[in-house]
Design a protein that fits this description.
48% of the residues lie in helices and 0% in strands. The chain is globular and about 30 Å long.
C-alpha cells in the first residue's frame, strides 16, 4: 500500500476518534486537536485492525504522537498491507 493511501486511512481514523476534522498538515499537533490517552488507544486499535499489523511497544512513546508528521514517520517503518 502506498504512503498516500495509508495517510488517508490515518487521517480518517483520527477524525473518527477525535469526532472532528483535523488539518491534514504535517505540523498538526494531535494533542492540541484533542488526542488524549483514551482516544490514542482507540486510534491504535482502529489502525491495527484496519491495516492488519501490531504496533511494537517501543513505538508507543509520546513523541511519536505529537504531530501528524511524527506519527506518519513512526508508521512508515511498518510494512502495512490492507489486502
Amino acid at each position: 500500500m502506498d504512503e498516500s493511501a495509508v495517510r488517508e486511512i490515518v487521517i480518517r481514523s483520527l477524525e473518527d476518534v477525535l469526532e472532528k476534522k483535523i488539518p491534514s498538515i504535517e505540523e498538526c499537533n494531535l494533542i492540541d486537536e484533542g488526542l488524549d490517552s483514551f482516544k490514542l488507544l482507540n486510534l491504535l486499535v482502529l489502525l491495527e485492525e484496519e491495516l492488519n499489523f501490531e504496533f511494537e511497544d517501543h513505538d508507543l512513546a509520546p513523541e511519536n504522537f505529537t504531530t501528524l508528521a511524527a506519527f506518519m514517520e513512526m508508521l512508515s517503518k511498518y510494512n502495512v498491507d490492507t489486502s
